Amino acid sequence: MNIKKLIFSVALFVVVILFTSWSQSKNPRMNLLNEAILPKPVSVTASGSSFELKANTKIFVDGESVALLKAGHYLANLIKPATGFDIEVTSTSKKSNSNSIYLSISKLEPEFGNEGYKLKITGKNVSIIANSPEGIFRGIQTFRQILPKEIEATTKQKKSWFIASGEIQDYPQYEYRGAMLDVARHFFNAEDVKKYIDMLAAYKFNALHLHLSDDQGWRIEIKSWPNLTVHGGSTQVGGGKGGFYTQEKYKEIVEYAQERYITIIPEIDMPGHTNAALASYPELNSSGEAPELYTGIKVGFSSLDTNKDITYQFISDVIKELAEMTPGPYIHIGGDESHVTSLEDYIPFINKVQDIVLANGKKVIGWDEIAHADLKTNTIVQFWARIENAQKGVDKKAQIILSPANKTYLDMKYDSITKLGLKWAGYVDVDSAYVWNPSTFISGISKKDILGIESPLWTETVTNIEELEFMVFPRIIGHAEIGWTPDSLRDWNDFKVRLKKHSERLKIKGINYYTSDLIFKVAPETKN
Ligand code: TNX
């Protein structure tokens, strides 16, 4: 055989082998870079093939960790309704099983922290590796977004489940990525709160702050002061029925959130925003007389008596019971809009309340006004309105949670024709909610001073879960990306395209999102 013939036959052989292996693997070629992942990961590398999730795919969990097994079952349950697959979850010490999803804890570089993960997809298997089960859980949310969108359906779909191959490396920019729900102005029951927790978990949020008391209602059972809920929880804005969480229900919410690596942060707002408490116990009032319950939406008219001993007895009892049923590290003490409390009374009040929280083993968060007081070690200032207060907080060595009303308030109208919501901080359409940068937002406050960001939903005008969804989505997804993704990777034009694609999933999930023209209006055909 001459050399030419030899080269020819070798080449032919190679071509035949390549062709047969290609035609045997029926997995389509797919590009991981085309997937719309929200929040955008730190890095994505595509490898051009795909993995097929099948009825006999298995989830393997490395070792015996209960938390990891739970994450495995969470994933199996996520996959089940739309695929109909009953995926088995088992512990193993073997690394490479084909046709499997492998979850494992292993030491990653320090920047991955508690929540970072590496997600690898090959034609044969999928692996999610992280420093902790929390990171695995965040990685599962990414995996979910690269499965076909029909995975979000609640009934069995007839289709194959291919996933683009490649590798994703990911970790958050900010430690705290929260949402707040005001259950005081309008009450939301535990089922609704759990639905909200699920929605938040999908975008890697890790905190849910519950605004549990305000002028219009007291929503958490306190056994030593039962009239708070019996009377103080009996109504809401507009005069409807109100409601409250028993301690059992509250614990159920906390546990549900914990399983999704979301910390519940309970808030008792004081000294202002306390009409419901004042109406329930006459002795808490300076006059000794209880006011009527309040069902309007004005703010700033009520205050605990900061000079009465019983006020501090009351607060100690409430914080003690709250701390006992809250595993998370924080208790939020409100402190906003205390317009009828003089600064002279306000400062010693906030100082004492911080001590009470610390004595119960928790750290304090308060709205930015608390920066007037002497901030204790670890007290966090939540900026919402006054830049000077946030700066004062940093001068006093506090870390800041950023909730600028004109960017993150989910109760602000999108535009002038939005029916729900308020507009005192301006309209907040999806672009405005997305296009800002925490580390340059307030002069003198840089990344190291910022614990993270939080998106509050005040509910003066929001009465049920459909209305909640409308005000929250899609703009909260922008906030999720601000909290998670490096600034250098964030870009409105790119975000807009991913969000539009992702909205197909919101549709399948049945989320009542706002179809902002900025994202959903079809551009008019350009003539040439
Ligand atoms: C200001 S934000 C408030 C709330 C209102 C909200 C309405 C803050 C700390 N206080 O009491 O519900 O505006 O947007």
Name the CATH architecture of the largest domain: Alpha-Beta Barrel
User: Sheet with the most strands?
Assistant: 8 strands, parallel, barrel
Q: Which strands sit side by side, in order, in the main sheet?
A: 8-9-12-13-14-15-16-17
Backbone CA Rg = 26 Å
CATH domain class of the largest domain: Alpha Beta
Total domain modules: 2
Gross morphology is elongated
Overview of this protein structure:
With 528 residues, the chain is an alpha/beta fold. The protein has two domains: 146 residues, Chitobiase/beta-hexosaminidase domain 2-like (Chitobiase, domain 2), CATH 3.30.379.10; 336 residues, Glycosidases (TIM Barrel, Alpha-Beta Barrel), CATH 3.20.20. The chain contains 17 helices and 17 strands. It has an eight-stranded parallel β-barrel with strand order 8-9-12-13-14-15-16-17, surrounded by six helices. Strands 1-7-5-6-4-2-3 form a seven-stranded mixed β-sheet. A two-stranded antiparallel ribbon has the order 10-11. The longest helix is centred in the N-terminal third of the chain and has 22 residues. The protein is elongated, with a radius of gyration of 26 Å. The mean pLDDT is 95. It binds ligand TNX. The site of ligand TNX has 10 residues, from loops.
